[in-house]
C-alpha cells in the first residue's frame, strides 16, 4: 500500500477506533495481537515497557524524590532499595529519612557526619540491636567467684567492678575477663566507691575507711557514726567525703585528714543513699557548677548545698506522700538536672531547678519494680524476676531479661547498673560493657 493511501486508511481506522466502547477497543486489540507476528509483538513489548513501566523516581528531581520518600516507613524503603541500583542509591542517600528512623529507635544523631550513606547503615545496625533486645539475645551472663561470705556492696566504673563482702575483703574485677585485679583485707563492707588509686568503704562497724589498692594499706579511718554506714560518696576536688548512716545522720568529712566537718541532721529513718554531684541548672537556691548533696531515707530526699559553707542548711525536702503512707525505694538517680526515685506509686521525676514533679511513670504492676538507671531515652528497671528496659518517650517496656534468684536487700545495695551512657541514646559504641550486676546467695556475683 502506498504511503498516502496508508495514511488515509490509518486516519479512518483511528476515527472509527475512538468511537468504540472500551470493551470493543479491547476486543479489537486482542484481534490485532492474534494476527501479529514475532516482529510486531517485540515492537509492542518495547513500547509498552516505556509507556507503562516508567521509573518515576529516576525521572523526578532529587529534592522531590526525597520529599516523597519521607512519607514511607523505613521497612518499605528497605524493600524499595531492591528495585534497582538507581533506587537503592537515591533511597540510601535520603539522610533525613534514616536519621528520623534512627531517632525513633532511640539512637543518638551526630549531625557532623556528612556521608549520605552513613545513616542507612546506622539504621540497619539499630534495627538489629533492638531486635536482639526484644528476642533476649543482647546480653551475655557470667559469674565472678572468689568471696567466701555475703557480698553486700557493689560499685562499677570504666569496666571495673568493686565488690565488698562480709568476709572482710574487697575485690576489684575486670568485668570483660572476669579476672580479679586486686583483693585487699578490709572491714565488713556495706558501701564501696573507688578510683585508680584508692577505695572508700562504708561499714556495718559504723565507720568509713580509705584504702590504697596497690598496697592494701588503710590510709584513713573516719569514726563518728553510731550506726552502720550504708552509703558513701566523695570528691577529690572538694577534698570532701559524705556518708549516710543508720544513725539517721549524714556526715561530711575532710577526705585527706579524716576530720568530721559537719553532721547533717533531720532524717528520721536510716539514710540509705548519699549522692554528691555538680548542679547543671540555675534556680534561686543554686547555680550551675555548685556541688549538691542528696541524701535519702525511707520516706524523704533531702537536698544540701556543699562547698560554699560547711554549716549548710537543707535547701529542700522531697517526698511522695505527706502522711508517709508511701515509702521510697532505696535507689536514687541525680544527674544535676533531674532527681528520679521509685516508690509503690510509680517512678517520680523532679525538675531540679524548680523541685516540681515533672511526671510519675506507672508501668504495669509497678509496686514491685525498682529503679536501676535513668537516662534521656531509656530507663533500666528490675523486679524479683526480670530486668526491664523502658522507652521513656512512650513509657512502655520494650524488653525484659530473666534474672536469677539474686540476693535481695532492703537497703538498696547488692545490685547495680553498669554502663549508663546508652540510656541517653544508643550510638553503636556505647552498648558494650556491664549492664547489670547482682550478688548471689552462694557469694558469687552474677
From TrEMBL:
<comment type="function">
    <text>Substrate-recognition component of the SCF (SKP1-CUL1-F-box protein)-type E3 ubiquitin ligase complex.</text>
</comment>
<keyword id="KW-0833">Ubl conjugation pathway</keyword>
<feature type="domain" description="F-box">
    <location>
        <begin position="54"/>
        <end position="101"/>
    </location>
</feature>
<dbReference type="Pfam" id="PF12937">
    <property type="entry name" value="F-box-like"/>
</dbReference>
<dbReference type="InterPro" id="IPR019775">
    <property type="entry name" value="WD40_repeat_CS"/>
</dbReference>
<dbReference type="InterPro" id="IPR001810">
    <property type="entry name" value="F-box_dom"/>
</dbReference>
<dbReference type="InterPro" id="IPR036047">
    <property type="entry name" value="F-box-like_dom_sf"/>
</dbReference>
<protein>
    <recommendedName>
        <fullName>F-box/WD repeat-containing protein 2</fullName>
    </recommendedName>
</protein>
<keyword id="KW-0677">Repeat</keyword>
<dbReference type="InterPro" id="IPR001680">
    <property type="entry name" value="WD40_rpt"/>
</dbReference>
<comment type="subunit">
    <text>Directly interacts with SKP1 and CUL1.</text>
</comment>
<feature type="repeat" description="WD">
    <location>
        <begin position="222"/>
        <end position="263"/>
    </location>
</feature>
<keyword id="KW-0853">WD repeat</keyword>
<feature type="repeat" description="WD">
    <location>
        <begin position="144"/>
        <end position="183"/>
    </location>
</feature>
<dbReference type="InterPro" id="IPR036322">
    <property type="entry name" value="WD40_repeat_dom_sf"/>
</dbReference>
<keyword id="KW-0007">Acetylation</keyword>
<dbReference type="InterPro" id="IPR042627">
    <property type="entry name" value="FBXW2"/>
</dbReference>
<dbReference type="InterPro" id="IPR020472">
    <property type="entry name" value="WD40_PAC1"/>
</dbReference>
<dbReference type="InterPro" id="IPR015943">
    <property type="entry name" value="WD40/YVTN_repeat-like_dom_sf"/>
</dbReference>
<dbReference type="Pfam" id="PF00400">
    <property type="entry name" value="WD40"/>
</dbReference>
Amino acid at each position: 500500500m502506498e504511503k498516502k493511501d496508508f495514511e488515509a486508511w490509518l486516519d479512518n481506522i483511528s476515527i472509527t477506533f475512538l468511537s468504540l466502547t472500551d470493551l470493543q477497543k479491547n476486543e479489537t486489540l486482542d484481534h490485532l495481537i492474534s494476527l501479529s507476528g514475532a516482529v510486531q509483538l517485540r515492537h509492542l513489548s518495547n513500547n509498552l515497557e516505556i509507556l507503562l513501566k516508567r521509573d518515576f523516581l529516576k525521572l523526578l528531581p532529587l529534592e522531590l524524590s526525597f520529599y516523597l520518600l519521607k512519607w514511607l516507613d523505613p521497612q518499605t524503603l528497605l524493600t524499595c532499595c531492591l528495585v534497582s541500583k538507581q533506587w537503592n542509591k537515591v533511597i540510601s542517600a535520603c539522610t533525613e529519612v534514616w536519621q528520623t528512623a534512627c531517632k525513633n529507635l532511640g539512637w543518638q544523631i551526630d549531625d557532623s557526619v556528612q556521608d549520605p550513606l552513613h545513616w542507612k547503615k546506622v539504621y540497619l545496625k539499630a534495627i538489629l540491636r533492638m531486635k536482639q533486645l526484644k528476642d533476649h539475645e543482647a546480653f551475655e551472663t557470667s559469674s565472678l567467684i572468689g568471696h567466701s561470705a555475703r557480698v553486700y556492696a557493689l560499685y562499677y566504673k570504666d569496666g571495673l567492678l568493686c565488690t565488698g563482702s562480709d568476709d572482710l575483703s574487697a575485690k576489684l574485677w575486670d568485668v570483660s575477663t572476669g579476672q580479679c585485679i586486686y583483693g585487699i583485707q578490709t572491714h565488713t563492707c556495706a558501701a564501696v566507691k573507688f578510683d585508680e588509686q584508692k577505695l572508700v568503704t562504708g561499714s556495718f562497724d559504723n565507720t568509713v575507711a580509705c584504702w590504697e589498692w596497690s598496697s592494701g594499706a588503710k590510709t584513713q579511718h573516719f569514726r563518728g557514726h553510731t550506726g552502720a554506714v550504708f552509703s558513701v560518696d566523695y570528691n577529690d576536688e572538694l577534698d570532701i567525703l559524705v556518708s549516710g548512716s543508720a544513725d539517721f545522720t549524714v556526715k561530711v568529712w575532710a577526705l585527706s585528714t579524716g576530720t568530721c566537718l559537719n553532721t547533717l541532721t533531720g532524717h528520721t529513718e536510716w539514710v540509705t543513699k548519699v549522692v554528691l554531684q555538680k548542679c547543671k541548672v540555675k534556680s534561686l537556691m543554686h547555680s550551675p557548677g555548685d556541688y549538691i548533696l542528696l541524701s535519702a531515707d525511707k520516706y524523704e530526699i533531702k537536698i544540701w548545698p556543699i562547698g560554699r559553707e560547711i554549716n549548710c542548711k537543707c535547701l529542700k525536702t522531697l517526698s511522695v506522700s505527706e502522711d508517709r503512707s508511701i515509702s521510697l525505694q532505696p535507689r536514687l538517680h541525680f544527674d544535676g538536672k533531674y532527681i528520679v526515685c521509685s516508690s509503690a506509686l510509680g517512678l517520680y521525676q523532679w525538675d531540679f531547678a524548680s523541685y516540681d514533679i515533672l511526671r510519675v511513670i506507672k508501668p504495669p504492676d509497678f509496686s514491685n519494680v525498682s529503679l536501676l538507671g535513668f537516662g534521656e531515652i531509656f530507663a533500666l528497671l528490675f523486679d524479683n524476676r526480670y530486668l526491664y528496659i523502658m522507652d521513656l518517650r512512650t513509657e512502655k517496656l520494650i524488653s525484659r531479661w530473666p534474672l536469677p534468684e539474686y540476693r535481695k536487700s532492703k537497703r538498696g545495695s547488692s545490685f547495680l547498673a553498669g554502663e549508663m551512657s546508652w540510656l541517653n541514646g544508643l550510638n553503636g559504641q556505647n552498648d558494650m560493657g556491664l549492664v547489670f550486676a547482682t550478688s548471689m546467695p552462694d557469694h558469687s556475683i552474677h
